[in-house]
Design a protein that fits this description.
Blueprint (H helix, E strand, L loop, with lengths): L2 E6 L4 E6 L5 E7 L4 H4 L1 H19 L8 E6 L9 H8 L6 E4 L1 H9 L5 E6 L3 E7 L2 E7 L11 H16 L8 H7 L8 E2 L2 E2 H12 L19 H21 L8 E4 L1 H5 L1 H13 L6 E3 L4 H11 L6 H20 L1
Parallel strand pairs: 1-4, 4-5, 6-11, 11-12
Antiparallel strand pairs: 1-2, 2-3, 6-7, 7-8, 9-10
Helix pairs in contact: 4-11, 5-8, 8-10, 11-12
C-alpha cells in the first residue's frame, strides 16, 4: 500500500508518502494549501507541489498511489469533484479522504482515538474528538466572528493598543516594536492633529490584507512587565482555555493535544492557558504536536483498516520526523 498524507495549512503544506511498514519514506514541503485564504486552484497547486516532492523523495510514481488523505481547515471549500479531477491531473486516480485539521492534529499527538485538540495559530479552534472524528467545534469562526486567542486576534489587540497609545490615551512599550514590524517610522510630529506614525498605521492597516495584523502577535510577548501587553496575553489565554472548557464533555477523558504556531512559539501563552484551565478545575493530559502531518498519515492508515496502536504510532511519528528533517535540508 502507498498512502499520500497531506496537511494543508493556511501558511504551509506538507505531504508524506507512507508505505506498508508504517514508515514515511518521503516528505515534501510547499506553501499555503488552504483554499479559503487563496482559492482552490492556488491551494491545490501547493498541495500538488508538496505531493510531487514527497513522491520524488520516496522514489515512487504517483500512479502507484492507493489512497490520499487530505487534512485541511478549508478542505470542504473545494467543490465536489474538484479534488478527484485535480489529483487525476497529476497522475493520482486513488480516492481522496478529507479530514479536519484538528482531527489530524489530535492524531499527530497520540494513538488514542478520543480527546481534545486546541490550536492557536493564525486562527484558534478547540474540538472534541470521538473515534477519530470531530464531534464538536468551538470557535474557529475566522477573524470577523471569533478566533479568540489566535495570532490574528492577538495582533489585532496589539494594533489597537498602539493606536490608542499614539493618540495619547494609554502608554505601552509595544509602540516601537509594533511600528518596526509594520515598517513605520516612529514619527511623533503632528500632522492634521495626529502623529505622523498614527496616520501611517491607519494607512498600513487599511490598505493591506487584514492578516498582516497576525505579524504583530509576537510583540505582545516582548515585555511581560508591560501592563497592556500582559493584559492581551492574559485575555488570549483565558479565551483559549474557555474554548476547551466549552468543548469538554465528562464522558471524554482523553488527552488535550496543543498545536499552532502561536501556541508552540510563545511559551507564556501556553503557560497562562494551562493555568486558566487549572483554575477552572479542568485537568487533562497535555501533549504538544507540531502540525497535522503525522495525524493525516495515522487517519489514512486507519481508513485502510490498519490498526495504529502505540508502537505503530511511534513508528509513523519518528519516521515522519526524520523525513521532515531531510525535506527541510533539501
Amino acid at each position: 500500500m502507498i498512502l499520500v498524507a497531506v496537511d494543508a495549512g493556511g501558511t504551509r503544506t506538507r505531504a508524506s508518502i507512507v508505505q506498508n511498514s508504517f514508515e514515511s519514506t518521503g516528505v515534501g514541503l510547499a506553501g499555503r494549501g488552504n483554499p479559503v485564504s487563496g482559492g482552490a486552484d492556488a491551494a491545490f497547486a501547493e498541495i500538488a507541489a508538496a505531493i510531487g516532492r514527497a513522491a520524488a523523495a520516496a522514489g515512487v510514481s504517483l500512479a502507484e498511489v492507493d489512497a490520499v488523505t487530505l487534512a485541511s481547515a478549508g478542505g470542504a471549500a473545494f467543490e465536489e469533484g474538484f479534488l478527484a479531477q485535480a489529483l487525476a491531473g497529476i497522475g493520482i486516480t486513488a480516492p481522496c479522504a478529507r479530514k479536519g485539521d484538528l482531527a489530524a492534529l489530535f492524531a499527530s499527538g497520540t494513538h488514542e482515538t478520543s480527546g481534545y485538540s486546541l490550536v492557536a495559530g493564525t486562527g484558534a479552534t478547540a474540538v472534541r474528538i470521538v473515534g477519530n472524528v470531530e464531534v464538536q467545534t468551538i470557535d474557529g469562526l475566522g477573524w470577523l466572528l471569533g478566533d479568540t486567542g489566535s495570532g490574528f486576534w492577538i495582533g489585532h489587540q496589539v494594533a489597537r493598543a498602539v493606536a490608542s497609545a499614539l493618540d495619547g490615551r494609554t502608554s505601552t512599550s509595544m509602540v516601537g516594536p509594533a511600528l518596526e514590524v509594520l515598517g513605520i517610522e516612529p514619527d511623533l510630529a503632528l500632522r492634521a492633529s495626529r502623529p505622523v506614525a498614527s496616520h501611517e498605521l491607519i494607512r498600513v492597516v487599511y490598505t493591506q490584507s487584514p492578516f498582516v495584523l497576525a505579524a504583530l502577535a509576537p510583540v505582545a510577548f516582548l515585555d511581560d512587565h508591560d501592563e497592556v501587553s500582559s493584559g492581551i496575553v492574559e485575555a488570549a489565554a483565558h479565551g483559549l482555555a474557555q474554548a476547551v472548557i466549552d468543548v469538554h464533555s465528562d464522558d471524554v477523558q482523553g488527552p488535550l493535544v496543543l498545536g499552532g504556531g502561536v501556541m508552540a512559539g510563545q511559551p507564556r501563552l501556553r503557560e497562562r492557558t494551562m493555568a486558566a484551565l487549572t483554575a477552572a478545575g479542568l485537568s487533562l493530559p497535555v501533549i504538544d504536536a507540531a502540525d497535522g502531518l503525522v495525524g493525516a498519515s495515522v487517519l489514512g492508515l486507519r481508513d485502510a483498516g490498519v490498526t495504529v496502536d502505540a508502537a505503530a504510532f511511534e513508528t509513523v511519528r519518528s519516521a515522519t520526523a526524520a523525513q521532515l528533517v531531510r525535506a527541510t535540508a533539501r
